Amino acid sequence: MFNSLSGRFLILTVIFVMLAEILIFVPSIARFREDYLLARLERAQIASLALEADAMLTQELETELLKNAEVYNVVLRRNEIRQLALSSPIPSPIAATYDMRDPSSMTLIADALHTLVEGQDQIIRVIGDPVRGGGLLIEVTMDEMPLRAAMLDYGRNILILSAFISITTAVLLFLAVQVLLVRPIKGVVGHMQSYAKAPEDARQIITPKAGVRELRDAEEALKMMQTQLTGALKQKERLAQLGGAVAKVSHDLRNILTSAQLFTDRIEGSHDPLVIRMAPKLVNSITRAVNLCESTLAFGRVDEPAPTLARVNLARIVGDVVDSERLAAADYDLSFSEDVPATMTLRADGEQLYRAIFNLVRNARQAIMATGQPGEINLQAKEDDNSWCIIITDTGPGLPKKAQEHLFQAFQGGARKGGSGLGLVIAADLIRGHGGRLDLQRTDETGTTFMIQLPKADMALAPAAE
Questions:
Q1: pLDDT digit string (tens) for 47-65?
Q2: Which pLDDT tens digit goes with each residue over 203-235?
Q3: Are 141 and 124 in contact (CB under 8 A)?
Q4: What DSSP state is assigned to residue 129?
Q5: In terms of DSSP bridges, do strands 387-394 and 447-455 run parallel, antiparallel, or are they unpaired?
Q6: Direct distance between the N- and C-terminal alpha carbons of the chain, in angstroms, rounded to an integer
Q7: Per the confidence metrics, is the pTM higher than 0.85?
Q8: What sign does the dihedral 195-198-201-203 (CA atoms) show?
């Protein structure tokens, strides 16, 4: 119980209430002592008035008056004349004197604590003002032990009352915490446990209904997290199913392309000038398609091969990409420009680099053609001591906000209606496999710029900024 939230709250409540009672007890006991001494002074004054009324009081009656007042002597000062009104033998010398004429609060508290802690069987003198103008000063001598006994009895009563108040308050707060906090928290925990058993089931998502604002905020945050996680799991399942279908299609497509590759080998023997010029490009395209199918099958087996690094000519790769895309945009007002040094040689996997650049250029072409307006795509390259940089710039409409927020996430970062966003994901993965990075440099209504960076050293570049 004491390890629970409500148990610890119960203990803390009792402790804090007791501390508050202690802070109340100290001035209370000081006030009780003051009232006790003032009451003795008032009784002594009444006894002295009885003596004044009848000066012929017997010794026995005088003793009884002092006994009722619980004092040994009474001195009353009237008109600057100090007069011993009542007296009896004092068993011991006076040990302390307390002046009750307008004492400070700290003095009363200090005297009260001294009486409680160091109280002894001793005689004390108490000085005060007579009530109702009965003189200038009244002074009595009395035993301190009855005062200490009365203070202890009063303190015991306060302690019992404080304990009762503490227990009652703690129980009420314990019940309040159970209803307002513990029960809703247990409900949230129960929802989390139920959700953990079947996170794909949207019915297990919590419905916020807590009355406490902080708990309601926690339930809202939990609901949002569960909703996102359930959606991600459903998407993961769909991707797994899609991956299986793609693997089957890739397997059959590879067989078909392999057959087509055999036919292109015979076409290469033709003497037709057009065939001689187009056959190598057709062979290269079919070879890349076969490699892509094999890579897709390998990816489905979670066995994506690492890039095979070699020295490749960037201008040739860029030229192949541009030639392929020019054919795709042959009936459209779209121009391509290249600013790649003819002798620039990179250390990369030629096929994977081709696929990365091809995906970026194809995305740019499709975005421009979707607008129905003329456009241009520019590819340029540069290098420094640390890396090679390939920059692809287009004059398209720019990436929509959703595509920017999910730039490299499959099926979420599509730049056009119906797009899957796979092109950017594939390009980023391929470049990352080289230890490089793909960055979005700029995107607005005037166009978009992507930059590929490949390291010259074996060390990988820093990841792209979010």
A1: 777 666 555 566 677 777 7
A2: 778 888 877 788 788 888 888 888 888 878 777
A3: yes
A4: P
A5: antiparallel
A6: 47
A7: no
A8: negative
